[in-house]
Amino acid sequence: MRYIGNNINITVNDLTVSYNDEGPDNAPVIILIHGFPLNKSMWTNQVEALIENYRVVAYDVRGHGKSVSGDEDFSIELFVSDLLGIMDVLKIDKAVLCGLSMGGYIALNAIENYPKRFNALILSDTNCIADSSVAKEKRMKAIENIRENGVEKYADESMKNLFAPESFATSKEKIITVKEMIVKTSIQSLCNTLHALSERKETCYKLPEIKMPTLIMVGKKDIITPPSTARFMHEKIKGSILNILEHAGHLSNIENPYEFNYQINKFIASLNQYNNGKEKANHSKRKTIF
C-alpha cells in the first residue's frame, strides 16, 4: 500500500528514514536526493512543479532532516544501499534519479553499480572526482571547527560558498531557510558526512559507460563544483545534455527554480519520446523477423 504525503517514516536497513511521496499512482517515478548539509525540504519547489504528472519521492539521507543516523560509519556506498532499500520498500522498480551535490555523488555511485534500477539521470552541481589531499584536509579542518565552534559558525561560513553573490541581495529568505537546515543538523551527522565525502571514490572513469539519458545542470556562479566540472562530465557521458543556469551558485535549484524546473520538465518529457522511439524500433524489428 502506498502512503502519500510528507514526512512519512519507513524502516530501511534497520534505520528510520523520512520521505515525501507525492503525485499520481502509476506515473513515472522521480527520486530526488538532496545536497549536504541540507535535507529533502530543499526540493519543495521542484516537487510542486512535477507532481501533476509524476510520482516524486524526496527523502532525507541518514543523519539529515528527520532520518536517524544509525550505528554504521557513513559512506557513499552506505547511502546508496539506503537508496536501494527505500526503492524496494516502496516497490519502485525503476526511477529517474536526480541528485544535487552530495546527492549527485550518491546518484553516480548508484548508476555505476545498479544501472538497471534507473531509466534516466539528472546531475546538478556535482562532480565525479574524488577529494584531493587538499580537499580532504579542508574537510578535516571543517570537522575540527564544527566540534570546537559549533554548527552556527559553520553554517555562516557555508553560506558564502553555497550561494551566488547576487543571491545575498535577491534571495535573503532562501538563505535564511538554508541556514536553518544546516543548523538543525546534528554535529555528529555533519562530521560523519564530511568524513564520508572525503573518502568517496572517483567515478569519472565510469562516465563513458552511462548509456541512459542524462541531464547535467550547474549554476553559472557555482564555486564548489563550477561549470568546468559539469562540462567535463558532459563530454564523458555520450548524448548528455548540459545546462548552465544563470543567477545561481551551488544551490541552483533553490536560486533559479524557474529555469531548473523548466529544464527538468523538458528533459523528462523528452524521455517519453525516447521511449516511444525505442518501442517503435523494437516493433519494427519484430515485424522484420516474422
Features:
8-stranded mixed sheet, globular, Rossmann fold, alpha/beta, 8 strands, 11 helices, 290 residues
Mind telling me the C-alpha Rg?
19 Å
Number of strands: 8
Per CATH, the architecture is 3-Layer(aba) Sandwich
Kindly give the count of domains: 1
Strand content: 15-25%
Determine the CATH superfamily. Answer: Alpha/Beta hydrolase fold, catalytic domain
CATH domain class? Alpha Beta
Strand order across the biggest sheet?
A: 1-2-4-3-5-6-7-8
Report how far the terminal alpha carbons are from each other: 42 Å
Could you describe the largest sheet, including whether it forms a barrel? 8 strands, mixed
Give the integer mean of the pLDDT values: 94
- At the fold tier of CATH, the topology name is Rossmann fold
The number of helical elements comes to 11
Specify the overall morphology.
globular
H-E string = EEEHEHEHEHHHHHEHEHH
Approximate helicity band: 40-55%
Structural class based on helices, strands and sheet pairing: alpha/beta
Question: Could you characterize the architecture of this molecule?
Answer:
There is one protein chain. The protein is of the alpha/beta class and 290 residues long. It has a single domain, classed as Alpha/Beta hydrolase fold, catalytic domain (Rossmann fold), CATH 3.40.50. The protein contains 11 helices and 8 strands. It has helices at residues 44-50, 76-89, 102-113, 133-149, 151-162, 167-170, 172-183, 187-198, 227-236, 252-255, 257-289, and strands at 5-12, 15-22, 29-33, 55-59, 95-100, 118-124, 214-219, 241-245. It has an 8-stranded mixed sheet, with helices on both faces. Helix 1 links the parallel strand 3 and strand 4. The protein is globular. The chain starts with a strand and ends with a helix.
